[in-house]
């Protein structure tokens, strides 16, 4: 008897279930694997013995499995749990591996971001040191695209497609009025500006939106920003700005925190988002219409406008993880390597998860223009293939026919 | 020589260009009509002689005309201009009809909401009184669904589909965490709660979201709201609330205005949206995670998730307007009449525009439950058919291939 278990962790993406689909599909077809389990709410499901038998659920139900591929967020639920160091808390490790032993688990797949790769690293080291034959493999996902050692992360392309599509629709919404306006669009990304950079993919032959792009990688100067807007206003009516939630001034202080006047019950200032902050600032400085739009959680869960390239790659990393584990490798993360830029060709390869865990990949300098208010054509060449293709999800009663997640509603 | 002119006005919808498509397509095929003009930025384009020759642009370009059908917001641009009364400003009327005369315009089609119908009413009365043979027809559009004399308005179904789809995706985003949370989703609709009510269409066999729905038609009681949340929390972890931006307390005061602590340059309190207001309120009262999401302008311009039923109906009202005008009628708005509920069948009929202008249709009592925190099955039966079917727009470079609107960027 040789079983496997899979879990999901961190923030949602539109395609994290596509990776789960990949794992399930490959494990079902693999002669070395008997039963496929899913742990609920990440590694905490392993600790609490809270699992689903995915072989039973999906084994004779290929249609439901297909539905999983197009459903955003996590079928197995998530957690924000960082595994303690072994030296400080050996009991947690013993609990996990005794569970693995009880269920005859030989392979553990963890789909997640930075923290999940830290868990993969710690568990695989523990297994090696204690001669426990459980292969532990990480499967990357994050809309933030901030994992190192991989060309990009599954989840990023779909979030980028949502951001670009929304930006273009905001442009159509904005250009109709014959009056001066500034629209600030706040996009997720506290430390890395990848998703905000993707707003540039909204540009067409007729629309320059976003006219300015600000990433956390470049210090943000409020006065230069206002001057830049004023200069642009000499030649165009409507200005649309994409700004990362995490932009900071030269001293590293969040712009979002700089302006505030609302207090909570304890007297702490509430932080308005950077969009609102800049909206108020511009409204005070310019005599025109200013509005801000926060794309919010929709950008990470918009399965209805997922990138098909992203879905396919998410499936591939899931499948490759099963292949890698059954070949006897452990402590690896499945990485996407770009073999050719044009035509775009990728390969999935295992990399040492220690190189990934607890590192963060920022947008490199050559993807940002010299003024720090736009991206370069190098970035456009990098990002364009990732949003290609549309999801093939079905609709029912006018809304997406996603998979039933009643088990998460306990 | 007998020409026609068409213009668009008010706020954007995903299908207002589908109505423009309907007008153009029908006018091209009509023996009575020679050239089709479009006035830019609504009636102000007529006043400023700022027009496009749509026959030249689309006459030999059926592919571009098809593209128009799936492009959100206004190809011809919009305005927020209310025509003055004739008694106060006859010159404006003379200017409009002298322009019509100069261009041999026999038919004027105005696509818009309440204010546009007011313009249609005034111009058609003026024409009749001055024996000017120009037929003036209104074509309804608004995401607010607040026009009387029509079962619903084109634009509502697509916005409703966007709201329902987003709500379901927010539910998937929310249910993954094994912790108590309340999510407030703020939806457009200052006086009429139709669009917020449509959030109920997000419900599935596994998702109850939104658990509570608050419309401006029912006075909002903050204390009852908090009690309602606390009661729900006894049985479920994640609560999702849909709330109209325009909810008011029993004295008619906007809830959005009640809590505030940010001031503009002139010392005026800035009004936070109702979502943020309720978020702060709940965060102070409950010990759990609270967040708010404002759907913002995306709900009115999301062409990528438009309802195909809505698109088809928008085309039909445009075509029917041409038919009605060329039959010699004037001062009419094209209304949608529901002939059968199930299967859903509608007919397009002209109604007297005076019955429509300056009236507002609120959500009727039998569509709202007794507690004022949900909709009824009557409403569900009414709204369900309107979001059926998906748009058929093409994508290019990973984003929607909308029509070029460079002419609006002057």
Describe this structure in words.
The structure is a homodimer of 410-residue chains. The first copy, chain A, has 410 residues and is of the alpha/beta class. Chain A folds into 2 domains: 3-155 and 302-359 and 389-409, Rossmann fold (3-Layer(aba) Sandwich); 161-300, 3-Layer(aba) Sandwich (Rossmann fold), CATH 3.40.50.460. Chain A contains 14 helices and 13 strands. Chain A has helices spanning 16-28, 43-47, 54-58, 62-69, 90-102, 114-129, 156-175, 194-197, 222-233, 255-258, 274-285, 298-301, 308-326, 377-383, and strands at 3-8, 36-39, 51-53, 105-112, 135-140, 181-187, 212-214, 238-244, 289-294, 332-340, 345-352, 395-396, 399-400. Chain A has a 7-stranded mixed sheet, sandwiched between helices. In chain A, a hairpin with a 2-residue loop joins strand 12 (395-396) and strand 13. In chain A, helix 1 packs across helix 13 (308-326). The mean pLDDT of chain A is 94. The interface between A and B is large, with 77 and 77 residues.
How many β strands of chain A by DSSP?
Answer: 13
Distance between the termini of chain A: 31 Å
Main sheet properties of chain A: 7 strands, mixed
Spatial order of the strands in the main sheet of chain A?
A: 3-2-1-4-5-10-11
CATH class of the largest domain in chain A: Alpha Beta
Shape of chain A: elongated
Uncertain runs of chain A with pLDDT below 50, 5 residues or more?
A: none
């Amino acid at each position: 008897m040789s079983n496997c278990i899979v879990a999901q962790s961190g923030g949602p993406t539109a395609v994290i279930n596509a990776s789960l689909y990949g794992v399930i599909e490959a494990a079902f077809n693999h002669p070395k694997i008997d039963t496929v389990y899913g742990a609920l709410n990440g590694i905490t499901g392993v600790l609490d013995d809270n699992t689903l038998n995915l072989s039973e659920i999906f084994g004779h139900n290929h249609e439901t499995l297909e539905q999983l591929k197009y459903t955003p967020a996590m079928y197995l639920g998530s957690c924000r749990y960082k595994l303690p160091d072994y030296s400080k808390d050996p009991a947690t490790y013993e609990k996990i591996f005794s569970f693995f032993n009880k269920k005859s688990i030989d392979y553990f797949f963890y789909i997640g971001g930075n923290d999940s790769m830290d868990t993969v690293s710690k568990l695989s080291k523990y297994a090696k040191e204690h001669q426990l034959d459980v292969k532990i493999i990480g499967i990357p996902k994050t809309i933030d695209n901030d994992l190192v050692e991989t060309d990009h992360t599954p989840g990023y392309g779909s979030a980028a497609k949502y951001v670009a599509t929304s930006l273009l629709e905001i442009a159509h919404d904005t250009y109709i009025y014959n009056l001066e306006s500034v629209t600030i669009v706040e996009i997720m990304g506290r430390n890395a500006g990848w998703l905000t950079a993707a707003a540039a993919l909204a540009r067409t032959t007729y629309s320059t939106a976003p006219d300015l792009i600000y990433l956390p990688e470049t210090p943000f100067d409020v006065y230069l920003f206002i001057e830049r807007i004023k200069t642009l206003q000499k030649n165009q009516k409507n200005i649309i700005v994409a700004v990362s939630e995490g932009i900071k001034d030269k001293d590293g202080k969040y712009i979002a925190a700089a302006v505030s006047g609302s207090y909570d019950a304890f007297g702490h200032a509430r932080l308005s988002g950077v969009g609102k902050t800049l909206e108020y600032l511009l409204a005070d400085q310019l005599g025109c219409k200013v509005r801000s739009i926060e794309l919010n959680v929709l950008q990470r869960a918009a399965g209805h406008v997922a990138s098909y390239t992203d879905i396919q790659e998410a499936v591939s990393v899931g499948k490759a993880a099963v292949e890698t584990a059954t070949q006897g490798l452990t402590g690896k993360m499945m990485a996407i390597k770009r073999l050719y830029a044009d035509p775009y060709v990728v390969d999935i390869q295992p990399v040492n998860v220690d190189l990934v865990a607890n590192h963060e990949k920022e947008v490199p300098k050559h993807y940002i223009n010299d003024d720090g208010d736009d991206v370069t054509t190098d970035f456009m060449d990098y990002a364009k293939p990732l949003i290609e293709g549309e999801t093939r999800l079905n609709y029912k009663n006018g809304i997406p026919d996603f998979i039933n997640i009643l088990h998460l509603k306990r």
